[in-house]
Amino acid sequence: MFELHLNGPSSGNPFKDVVLTAVFTTNHRQVRVTGFYDGGGSYRIRFMPDTIGTWSYVTSSSSHDLNGHAGTFDCVAPITPGNHGPVGTAHQYHFEYADGTPYFPFGTTTYAYLFTGEDNAVASLAGMTQARFNKTRACVLPKPLGKGVQPLPFPTSGTGTDGRGGTNDYTRFNPVYFQTLEKRLLELQKANIEADLILFHPYDAWGYKSMPDEVDEFYLRYTIARLSAFRNVWWSIANEYDLVKAKTMSDWDDFFRVTQTEDPYSHLRSIHHSRVIYDHSKPWCTHASLQSYDFEKSTSRREAWNKPIIYDEIQYEGDVDRRWGNLSAEEMTRRFWLAIVNGVYATHGEVFISETGESSWSDAGRLRGDSGPRIAFLRALIERITKAGLNEVEGAYYLSAGMGDEVLLYYFDVHRPARYDFPLSVTANFSATLIDPFHMTTTTLPGTFTGKSRISLSNKPYQAVLFQKVSSAKGKATPSNESQVPSNEP
Amino acid sequence: MFELHLNGPSSGNPFKDVVLTAVFTTNHRQVRVTGFYDGGGSYRIRFMPDTIGTWSYVTSSSSHDLNGHAGTFDCVAPITPGNHGPVGTAHQYHFEYADGTPYFPFGTTTYAYLFTGEDNAVASLAGMTQARFNKTRACVLPKPLGKGVQPLPFPTSGTGTDGRGGTNDYTRFNPVYFQTLEKRLLELQKANIEADLILFHPYDAWGYKSMPDEVDEFYLRYTIARLSAFRNVWWSIANEYDLVKAKTMSDWDDFFRVTQTEDPYSHLRSIHHSRVIYDHSKPWCTHASLQSYDFEKSTSRREAWNKPIIYDEIQYEGDVDRRWGNLSAEEMTRRFWLAIVNGVYATHGEVFISETGESSWSDAGRLRGDSGPRIAFLRALIERITKAGLNEVEGAYYLSAGMGDEVLLYYFDVHRPARYDFPLSVTANFSATLIDPFHMTTTTLPGTFTGKSRISLSNKPYQAVLFQKVSSAKGKATPSNESQVPSNEP
């Protein structure tokens, strides 16, 4: 990230009164970006170059002090090993980094991570790192936290319309609030964790869910100007958008369009629902962000939307009394595997009862559940066996996903056949590995397999079998689908 | 059962040529029943009286030898303790015996039980008794069994159109075949097991699934004449009717009507599907017999059909390679509980791989699985807590079923809240019992509970909680539904 710092006017309302942009140029390309006021007479313009070489820039502003600043800098190859650029969609239903490095989202949920206290943030990042999550869903605007949790700073001036007579001055942002966000965004970036930034949400005690229309857009433009040069940013237009009663579908569409227009880098854009699924075929959605665990609908949804799908809320591991918050680690692990063999991705969440006012993990706190290591085990497996991702095998008798002839992954869920005649391709020889997803064991069988291959399995449910191509085979490519067809009996 | 034995003509084809009926009379009531030819010049008329007292009868026949036989007998109160008469529907969505004794179907599947070899039948009955199943689904017409299993007798004369040049003489039945069925039916009756008799099915190697129309009806009338006086008979018109390609929907409707007309006792009538659900709102269906485990649709189906529902195939415990035949005992137990808290019933099945040609349980053989005792545990629980059956609590936040204010049974499935505020009625005081359905433990909590009651639960999934009314309470009957409404967050 290149950042240009300029000093300018601090009188009046610089957030509203001062226009500041810059054009960045390399060879024949020009990229126009918007700067922002950072308080105390400071202005910043941030830029994320995508091409190695010399860039020049020149500023334009309604303020004489800020206008016409020009300069050059060299964009060099990434120095930090984890820097592969921003994540985009790839291979129709999957993702990858800008430099072509595979990226498979195995994310979690820490809504308050960006604005919570330092202790919570440290604990939260430690948990994410330990469990190897590579994405987290986090709110930009504050949400109420547990009792005993310290009051938040506010993103705008004023004291919040919290029913105690306070007011929000929506014409002035609080730079300190955003500086905290940015510090945390960088911490995520250093840990190779993508930040799925939730721009609007219904969990609000101060009026941010029902700001006037022009304020919503004012806030959006400011946030995008500040944050879009962070390479690990994704835009989640809203969490549970359909629970934000003050907004209409056309508001959500507008926010997508503003985000698409204002973000020079086209970071990933999605919107997350509660009950009413957004029409993800709309062109500004880069992928679907669902709340559900009806993975059996994945295939028809992928075909309808032609985009990757992340099931971003599949209920939470935990023990609270709400239905969404008391899954066992076994069930959470199972849902991640079901997602993968259905060609989609899932997102973790956790919430345990706290008597002491301690923040739950999903607000940003300490990780207490047992699914984390199992999800990391699955992530490591996927990263080892494919560069592109796995697509579900349509019409397969047992749930399975693969990519070309290279790899085929079965997940048997509740089924526990003593043996199965796997209908492998006859054009390749495969290694076979038995996997216990919860106990995290792998057992590679001796020899190779091609065509219809009978393999004995354990008598346990929730087991997986992985086939990987080791060489070509001489079989003619007319595999029998016989064993794909269910018997009529009984 | 009263049985009148008469000798008559054995020349020609008595099955086809001789008409034999009788009218049984007590006081002002008359019941007309049909007799049947049992081979060797023997004719029988069976009658199941439903009223204590003196009955008289007189026969009518196209044969002079069989015509005009008259007599009387006394119908006395049941002598055997398990005899409560036939089972019928009751309480809208449930069942009971004719004498008003509660009957809750906890059945299993032994397709070949009626016509298999004696060793298999003995083993099968021992398993049913041990696991306390009180219903079994069994085919009247033969089905192919595993390799090494002895050839069957045939229900009709001839050698079967098995592709080896045999033929069926559909105009003559084989009395020995039916005598075996009846012996087995009586053995079930003695063990208090209802026989859900499958009249047609698609698993056939001898032409019985595609007999000419008039033969189907000929077979139906003969079977009903022979078997309807057994009090433990239910009629399942077909198994997987939609897989019997030679028959149309109007054939199935006809079979229902014939069965309804010919059976003087109106035994329970249902039809079992594979993929295409029969319209169970048709008036001749007494209850629905489903193949599925989508219990979440139970409520809408009960309301649409206004009848009891038995999920008669919910997949099988076992280890074969087909999806329907390799559930764990845990998953089978779970599905039974899901059925109960959705106000419906489920049926057990089991199939394990046999290398030796041994019959699987579901064909009639040895019971090897572990769900049997768990199903018996659930049956004993239901029999202890209700006389009518349980209906699902519509709109409940967690799955639960009850009957009036007397009893309320929760099943938490994958959910494992550390505690829950149960929204109990304020008009009663309840005892509370924690139940582990798989480990078959019950723990009754001290004290009683009324109104919103917080109870701590274990951290395990698949647990249940039972509330039973112990006394009336003084609360006003305006219970808050607050805790029934899911929180919006997150």
Question: Overview of this structure, please?
Answer:
2 copies of one chain form a homodimer. Chain A is an alpha/beta fold and 490 residues long. Chain A has 3 domains: 2-75, Immunoglobulins (Immunoglobulin-like, Sandwich), CATH 2.60.40.10; 87-385, TIM Barrel, CATH 3.20.20; 393-484, Immunoglobulin-like (Sandwich). Chain A has 8 helices and 29 strands. Chain A has helices at residues 14-17, 118-130, 175-190, 213-227, 249-262, 298-305, 329-341, 371-385; strands at residues 2-7, 20-26, 29-34, 36-37, 42-47, 53-61, 70-75, 87-90, 94-97, 108-109, 135-139, 156-158, 168-173, 194-200, 233-238, 269-270, 288-291, 309-313, 317-318, 345-346, 350-351, 391-392, 400-403, 407-411, 419-423, 428-436, 441-444, 452-456, 464-472. In chain A, strands 22-23-24-29-26-27 form a 6-stranded antiparallel sheet. The first copy, chain A, has a 5-stranded parallel sheet with strand order 10-11-14-15-16, with helices on one face. In chain A, a hairpin with a 4-residue loop joins β4 (36-37) and β5 (42-47). In chain A, α4 packs parallel to α5 and α7 (329-341) runs parallel beside α8. In chain A, 47% of the residues are buried. Residues 479-490 of chain A have low confidence and may be disordered.
